[in-house]
Amino acid sequence: MRASLIQIAVDEGESVASRRQRVAALVREQAGADLVVLPELWTTGAFAYEEFGPEAEPLEGPTYEAMAKAASDAGVWLHAGSIPERTASDSGSAAGDGPLYNTSLLFSPSGDLAAAYRKIHRFGFDQGEAVLMSAGRDLVTVRLPGTTLGVATCYDLRFPELFRGLVDAGAETLVIPAGWPERRRAHWTLLAQARAVENQAFVLACGTAGTHAGVPQAGHSIVVDPWGEVLAEAGAGEEVLTVDFDPAKVAATREQFPALKDRMLGLEPPRR
Fold first, then answer.
1. What residues does each domain of the chain span?
2. Catalytic-role residue among 40, 85, 129, 172
3. 206 is catalytic
4. Choosing from 51, 85, 129, 154, which is the catalytic residue?
5. pTM for this structure?
6. Is 40 a catalytic residue?
7. What is the CATH number of domain 2-257?
8. CA of 155: how far to CAs of 82, 111, 130, 139, 141, in Å?
9. What is the pLDDT of residues 174-233, one digit of tens each?
10. H or E element: which one contains 81?
């Protein structure tokens, strides 16, 4: 299976509309890949909090339309990263004045929406995304020919229980778009490898380059196999990281070293 992770540089001088067109062209250039992955909030920048509201879109908005067309043109499965999604209000207003979500979109090679995932863990410690965005509630997996994807986003990477839930739902390849800051790049690599090892799954983690609202991005998108071996890693700038991997290695690893069978569930907390 061939995956291409497009590590997009977010330049504050580039309009969202221009970036959307540029990224669609990059996706089309990946014809021949099986799966293409984009980063988190690449339309606005993950730390450009003041842009979330003005640039928010309905689920089937301009980014949806551009990425659906690009996936169909390239004939690839496309994890289109995430967008700030503006939902309808409880009153059903057509103006879209409901809550915001950090929402990932995944398209089939025909351009149909295969899944949408609203980020569960929002970053910010009572500010930024944690205040501006609502939390998703649902785990999302998608069956592709040869593997089942488990979908997570950026800060989710720090919460192993989410990935256990995805594995229990059948995930074999974990796809994680992110806007991870450069100052915590060591955590990015460490956690990507940890999630691969503990879940005996492939990890495809796609970050951004550039600077988001004054926050330098880590870049260094990474692909890790079920034993924790790094198969490919990007640098700091914009690039396309392409790697071939064998999804059958997941089943072989879990059979050869069946650690997941030894999980102890339902343990009682210590008595005081």
1. 2-257
2. 40
3. no
4. 154
5. 0.96
6. yes
7. 3.60.110.10
8. 13, 28, 11, 15, 18
9. 999 999 999 999 999 999 999 999 999 999 999 999 998 999 999 999 999 999 999 999
10. strand 77-86
